[in-house]
Amino acid sequence: MHETVELIKAIAELISALAWPCVAVYFLVRFHRQIASLLGELPNAVRRARSVHAPGVEIELNQIGAELPIAERQASMLSLQLPPVPAPNKTEEGV
Protein backbone atom coordinates (compact mmCIF):
# COMPACT_ATOMS: atom_id res chain seq x y z
CA MET A 1 0.00 0.00 0.00
CA HIS A 2 2.83 2.43 0.90
CA GLU A 3 4.56 1.69 -2.42
CA THR A 4 1.38 2.52 -4.34
CA VAL A 5 1.08 5.88 -2.59
CA GLU A 6 4.71 6.69 -3.37
CA LEU A 7 4.18 5.73 -7.01
CA ILE A 8 1.11 7.98 -7.28
CA LYS A 9 3.06 10.87 -5.70
CA ALA A 10 5.93 10.35 -8.15
CA ILE A 11 3.54 10.32 -11.12
CA ALA A 12 1.82 13.49 -9.84
CA GLU A 13 5.18 15.26 -9.48
CA LEU A 14 6.16 14.17 -12.99
CA ILE A 15 2.89 15.47 -14.45
CA SER A 16 3.22 18.78 -12.63
CA ALA A 17 6.81 19.15 -13.85
CA LEU A 18 5.82 18.46 -17.47
CA ALA A 19 2.59 20.49 -17.49
CA TRP A 20 3.97 23.98 -18.10
CA PRO A 21 6.41 22.97 -20.87
CA CYS A 22 3.58 21.12 -22.64
CA VAL A 23 1.35 24.19 -22.39
CA ALA A 24 4.16 26.41 -23.69
CA VAL A 25 4.81 24.11 -26.65
CA TYR A 26 1.08 23.97 -27.40
CA PHE A 27 0.83 27.78 -27.51
CA LEU A 28 3.97 28.06 -29.64
CA VAL A 29 2.62 25.56 -32.16
CA ARG A 30 -0.92 26.95 -32.07
CA PHE A 31 0.06 30.61 -32.43
CA HIS A 32 3.34 30.36 -34.38
CA ARG A 33 2.11 32.59 -37.23
CA GLN A 34 0.97 35.32 -34.87
CA ILE A 35 4.20 35.10 -32.86
CA ALA A 36 6.32 35.30 -36.03
CA SER A 37 4.32 38.31 -37.22
CA LEU A 38 4.69 40.02 -33.86
CA LEU A 39 8.45 39.41 -33.76
CA GLY A 40 8.74 40.66 -37.34
CA GLU A 41 7.06 43.94 -36.37
CA LEU A 42 9.10 44.42 -33.20
CA PRO A 43 12.01 46.37 -34.80
CA ASN A 44 9.54 48.78 -36.45
CA ALA A 45 7.71 49.28 -33.16
CA VAL A 46 10.99 50.02 -31.39
CA ARG A 47 11.93 52.57 -34.06
CA ARG A 48 8.53 54.29 -33.73
CA ALA A 49 8.66 54.40 -29.92
CA ARG A 50 9.07 57.91 -28.55
CA SER A 51 9.36 57.15 -24.83
CA VAL A 52 9.84 54.28 -22.43
CA HIS A 53 8.08 54.19 -19.07
CA ALA A 54 8.88 51.93 -16.14
CA PRO A 55 8.25 52.36 -12.42
CA GLY A 56 10.43 55.29 -11.40
CA VAL A 57 12.01 55.71 -14.86
CA GLU A 58 10.95 57.61 -17.96
CA ILE A 59 13.16 57.96 -21.03
CA GLU A 60 12.35 60.25 -23.95
CA LEU A 61 13.77 58.65 -27.08
CA ASN A 62 13.32 61.77 -29.22
CA GLN A 63 16.15 63.45 -27.35
CA ILE A 64 18.45 60.47 -27.81
CA GLY A 65 17.58 60.15 -31.50
CA ALA A 66 18.23 63.84 -32.12
CA GLU A 67 21.73 63.56 -30.70
CA LEU A 68 22.74 60.53 -32.77
CA PRO A 69 23.58 62.41 -36.00
CA ILE A 70 25.72 64.84 -33.99
CA ALA A 71 27.60 61.98 -32.36
CA GLU A 72 28.10 60.31 -35.75
CA ARG A 73 29.50 63.53 -37.24
CA GLN A 74 31.83 63.98 -34.28
CA ALA A 75 33.04 60.39 -34.60
CA SER A 76 33.68 60.79 -38.32
CA MET A 77 35.55 64.05 -37.70
CA LEU A 78 37.73 62.34 -35.10
CA SER A 79 38.57 59.53 -37.47
CA LEU A 80 39.56 62.08 -40.15
CA GLN A 81 41.78 64.05 -37.75
CA LEU A 82 43.75 61.11 -36.42
CA PRO A 83 46.83 60.16 -38.42
CA PRO A 84 47.30 56.48 -39.23
CA VAL A 85 49.40 54.56 -36.73
CA PRO A 86 52.62 53.32 -38.34
CA ALA A 87 53.50 49.66 -38.10
CA PRO A 88 56.35 48.91 -35.69
CA ASN A 89 59.74 48.66 -37.39
CA LYS A 90 61.56 45.42 -36.95
CA THR A 91 65.25 46.02 -36.58
CA GLU A 92 67.97 43.50 -36.30
CA GLU A 93 68.65 44.66 -32.75
CA GLY A 94 65.13 43.62 -31.65
CA VAL A 95 65.34 40.19 -33.26
Give a structural overview.
- The protein has a domain at 30-81.
- It is built from 3 helices and 2 strands, in the order H-H-E-E-H.
- It has helices at 2-30, 32-48, 61-81; strands at 51-54, 57-60.
- A two-stranded antiparallel ribbon has the order 1-2.
- Strand 1 (51-54) and strand 2 (57-60) form a beta hairpin.
- It is elongated and about 85 Å long.
- The termini are far apart.
- 0% of the residues are buried.
Keywords:
95 residues; two-stranded antiparallel ribbon; elongated
What's this, in brief?
With 95 residues, the protein is mainly α. It has helices at 2-30, 32-48, 61-81, and strands at 51-54, 57-60.
Helix and strand content put the structural class at: mainly alpha
Strand content: 5-15%
DSSP helical segment count: 3
For the terminal residues, how far apart are their CA atoms? 84 Å
Q: How confident overall, as mean pLDDT?
A: 76
General shape: elongated
Q: What's the Cα radius of gyration?
A: 30 Å
Detail the poorly predicted runs. none
Query: Biggest sheet, strands in spatial order?
Result: 1-2
Q: What about the largest sheet?
A: 2 strands, antiparallel
Sequence-ordered SSE layout with sheet pairings:
Elements: H1 2-30, H2 32-48, E1 51-54, E2 57-60, H3 61-81
Antiparallel strand pairs: 1-2
